[in-house]
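Suppose a colleague, Dr. K., hands you the sequence of a protein chain of 273 amino acids and asks what its three-dimensional shape might be. Before reaching for any lab equipment, you can write down a predicted structure in token form. Begin with the sequence itself:
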Amino acid sequence: MKNKGSVFSLIPYYAWIILFVIAPILLVGYYSLLDLDGNFTFANYKQFFTSVYLKMTLSSFWYAFLITVFSLLISYPAAYLITRLKHKNLWLILIIIPSWINLLLKTYAFIGIFGNKGPINAFFEKIGLGNQQILFTDFSFIFVSVYIFIPFMILPIFNSLDKLNPALMDAAKDLGASRITTFRRVIIPMTMNGIKAGIQAVFIPALSLFMITRLIAGNKVITLGTAIEQQFLVTQNWGMGSTIAVFLIIIMFIIMFLTGSKEKGDAQYGKNK
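The predicted structure, expressed as tokens, is then:
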């Protein structure tokens, strides 16, 4: 009876996975094999491997890479500092709170900040630099994206750092290791799972950004997410849009596999050893 009850309790979980994960992926795969007239074709996949879409894919990877790197460079020291503060949970909440605000509202706020009549340009004019074109540039796109994704990078890194045993640092210090060596040989390896989780949380959604590319970058930055939006809403080519989405899903699964946690395997290795 106990086993039967546990099986029944899993039904909502499996139903959710089938309806909202597997079914949408199969539907996207189905539409990727249709042309504008609804006929079966592989032309969409052939078109994806042309220079236009391959260049767009490389551009998406490049911008996602930059956003992830800058988010990591800011988030790791910030998370490390928060773990050393007295009211660390309060500071963590203050960092996470901006992620609760609607993305569109934050984007429009940055349009005002970076605009020609915004406070930054007003400051530039006061110090004699004149009016600068900040909006609709690569800088503004990466800056706003990093700002939005920082909380998602900080949280898993903070959890890894907070679980770190202080005795490990003390042992490294007693053995003569410098702070840099301790950080490089002890802290970084012990928090690698948090870093990988943060990379997943930032890199994967950064590949499919489209709202920020429209409003902040002014369509000067083209990503796979922008292409999908254009194919579905502008050209009404659902087949090509679904094909791009299929490759985006495949790329996401590859990234999740490469950055997956090996904590279970490491524990098993230590047990066998």
